[in-house]
Design brief:
- This protein is mostly beta strands.
- It has 4 helices and 13 strands.
- The chain has a single domain, classed as Acetoacetate decarboxylase-like (Beta Barrel).
- The protein has a 9-stranded mixed barrel with strand order 1-3-4-5-6-7-8-11-12.
- A hairpin with a 4-residue loop joins strand 4 and strand 5.
- The protein is globular, with a radius of gyration of 17 Å.
- The chain starts with 18 loop residues before the first strand and ends with a strand.
- InterPro entries: ADC_dom_sf, DUF2071.
């Protein structure tokens, strides 16, 4: 099987979008993990995508804006909310790279219900807040149904640094992802996405207290992340699902 190359723009442009949205004020936190430890967590027909024999766990908080069906426009209120996802990296039998979401915490109930019922994504309704003061962003998240449970909460504080002019191999591997893999109605599908190349900044993690990674079924990340990146955001279009 030949795996598609890592490209800064999608190799599969979306001509007829089924879903539109913006991802703004993102931080990408990543830790290395052995592929065999996460392989059982991926949907059938996919395996961990690796770089130099290593795969990664990502914790990605951000602000979702203007979610809408079809070509849009997106919804300004119901489609705008904070979200945090825990993700893995996958490749399917056709060589398509993607992400697998182990959990998605969102602050708006309707998108949570739609995401769970239509795409079968593991959304959870949470209280979330994003606060920015100059070049420092604080993200906080807690599961609404268990507000006192620290293992279902997350808080990250990040200082935005200099712009990335040339992403490293690892930075391209972690961010240039043009679809997601999900178990959907008894089969695994690849849902493609399309957006402009990421505008990236390197960033410094000032503080992290996270319980989302372990509650997503992953081993605890004992050391600091090996990659911390920030992006002001991109507009995203999703295409129709394709069988993986």
């Amino acid at each position: 099987m030949e795996i598609e190359p890592i490209t800064l723009s999608t190799p599969r442009p979306v001509r007829r979008p089924t879903l539109v949205q913006r991802w703004d004020e993102l931080t990408f936190l990543h830790w290395p993990v052995e592929p065999e430890r996460v392989a059982p967590l991926l949907p059938a027909g996919t395996r961990p995508d690796t770089l130099d024999g290593v795969t990664y766990v990502g914790l990605v908080p951000f602000l979702m804006r203007g979610v809408g069906f079809g070509p849009g426009p997106g919804l300004p209120y119901l489609g705008t909310f904070c979200e945090t996802n825990v993700r893995l990296y996958s490749v399917d039998g056709q060589g398509r790279r993607g992400v697998v979401f182990r959990s998605l915490d969102a602050a708006r109930l309707l998108p949570v219900l739609v995401g769970r019922l239509t795409v079968r994504l593991p959304y959870r309704w949470s209280t979330m807040r994003l606060r920015r003061e100059r070049d420092v962003i604080t993200y906080s998240c807690g599961l609404r149904l268990r507000p006192a449970a620290r293992d279902r909460a997350s808080r990250a504080v990040v200082r935005i640094g200099e712009a990335v002019t040339e992403p490293t191999r690892l930075e391209r591997f972690l961010t240039a992802r043009w679809g997601l893999h999900v178990a959907w109605h008894g089969r695994t599908v690849h849902l493609p996405n399309d957006h402009a190349p990421w505008p990236l900044h390197r960033a410094e993690l000032l503080d992290l207290d996270d319980g989302l990674i372990t509650t997503a079924g992953l081993p605890p990340m004992t050391g600091p992340p090996v990659s911390v990146l920030y992006s002001p955001g991109v507009a995203v279009r999703f295409g129709a699902p394709q069988r993986a």
